[in-house]
Amino acid sequence: MDGSSAPVRLDKWLWAARFAKTRALAADAVKGGRVHLNGQATKPSKEVRPGDELEITVGQVRRTVVVRATSERRGPAGEAQRLYEETPDSVEARERAALVRRLAAMAVPEHGGRPTKRDRRRFDRDRRR
Fold this sequence. Notes:
Strand content: 15-25%
Largest sheet: 5 strands, antiparallel
Distance between the termini: 72 Å
CATH class: Alpha Beta
Strand order of the largest sheet: 3-2-5-6-7
Radius of gyration: 22 Å
CATH superfamily: RNA-binding S4 domain
Number of helices: 5
Helix content: 40-55%
């Protein structure tokens, strides 16, 4: 990766930084309002430069990253991570949300899924009484 400071299209940068699997998906995310550049909704063709701040929402996870370098080519994940730096507030919020999801999943009692034939017969027998 060149890791330059030349401006690059937003959808191309999202693809190179591995926030999207394809440029088309990156463009759809921008058009759908899931990516904000410096606090404002934007278009996929908007150019990003080092120092720009992006708010990226993927599923329930919202990340705030600062662009450190630009690249027009997609490379290995290690090099892609050098293109941006996630803000400390974003990391903390993401970890807090993950903890809440884990705790919520533990609070739900596991009932075993679909009842077996034996369970259904017991239920029917108890219901007739």
